[in-house]
Design goal:
Layout (H helix, E strand, L loop, with lengths): L1 E4 L15 E4 L10 H8 L5 E4 L4 H4 L8 E6 L5 H4 L3 H7 L8 E5 L12 E4 L1
Parallel strand pairs: 1-2, 1-3, 3-4, 4-5
Antiparallel strand pairs: 5-6
Length: 122
């Protein structure tokens, strides 16, 4: 699976997805593009955009794009706050299909990524 880490996501997460092809927006040549333009540029070139921007499903028509969006929620955007739950993120990727987004409830270090705390949007 080909993943794109949004600018707001720490690139320290990149090794945590070693089973996938992972690119930062800078590596992909998409640095500086905002939500809609970034999604359109990534659509068809990446399978999943990983971001912390929870407004994307409400502001963008993801259903019209060929990319899924994983929205991480944590106390801050730093690696230590994602670290306790990072192993739970990779299995979520198998649940994705294009034009889907998933909010991952990772606000608490002990949060378990199950249907109980995930909200799908399409």
């Amino acid at each position: 699976m080909k993943l794109l880490l949004d600018e707001c996501v720490t690139n320290y997460l990149k090794p945590d997805f070693a089973a996938h092809e992972v690119f930062t927006v800078e590596e992909a040549g998409l640095k500086g593009l905002k939500n809609g333009k970034l999604l359109r540029a990534a659509s068809g070139n990446f399978d999943v955009l990983i971001t912390v921007d929870k407004s994307i499903p409400h502001q963008q028509n993801i259903a019209s794009l060929n990319i899924a969006v994983l929205i991480l929620r944590a106390k801050t955007n730093t690696y230590p706050d994602f670290s306790p739950s990072r192993r739970r993120i990779s299995p979520l990727l198998t649940r994705f299909s294009p034009a889907k987004s998933l909010l991952s409830g990772l606000e608490r270090p002990d949060a378990v990524s199950t249907d109980a705390n995930l909200e799908a949007h399409s």
